[in-house]
Design a protein that fits this description.
By secondary structure, the protein is mainly α. Helices cover about 40% and strands about 5% of the residues. The protein has a two-stranded antiparallel sheet. The longest helix is centred in the middle third of the chain and has 19 residues. The two termini are about 35 Å apart.
């Protein structure tokens, strides 16, 4: 959290802005060195293990069934008319689907920064509202 505060405030505090909102100072750009290809000298057993692992991963990827359904009944405009953000709408839909499938509420995760409270830390908020039940 200290680093993030530095990121969002350093430019404003130390560099400043011109009257038209542009950053003061001169931009510096030093291009990084060009990448070089690494040459590996692996023994045959390691190459065989890599090939086996690759085949297992390929088999797992090929064992996935994916169906995509086009939903055209309504979109984000409807959600906003209901005074619900599209993100909140999708979150509630996911929670409802989980509840219908598992028969219990899911634990949702929402980070909350309490940097300016007490010793400052990141807490986890477990939102559950009357509206979501």
């Amino acid at each position: 959290s200290h680093f993030w505060e530095y990121v969002v405030s350093d430019e404003t505090i130390n560099m400043g802005y011109t009257s038209d909102g542009r950053c003061l100072g001169t931009p510096e750009y030093n291009p990084p060195p060009m990448p070089i290809r690494l040459q590996w000298d692996l023994p045959p057993p390691a190459l065989a293990a890599i090939d086996r692992s690759y085949q297992i991963a390929l088999d797992l990827c090929n064992d996935v069934d994916l169906r995509i359904y086009m939903h055209t009944a309504y979109g984000k405009g409807f959600m906003k008319e209901c005074k619900v953000s599209p993100d909140a709408y999708i979150q509630m839909a996911l929670q409802l689907a989980y509840f219908r499938d598992a028969g219990r509420f899911s634990l949702t995760y929402e980070a909350s920064m309490t940097r300016l409270y007490r010793e400052g830390r990141t807490e986890t908020v477990r939102p559950c509202t009357i509206e979501s039940t």
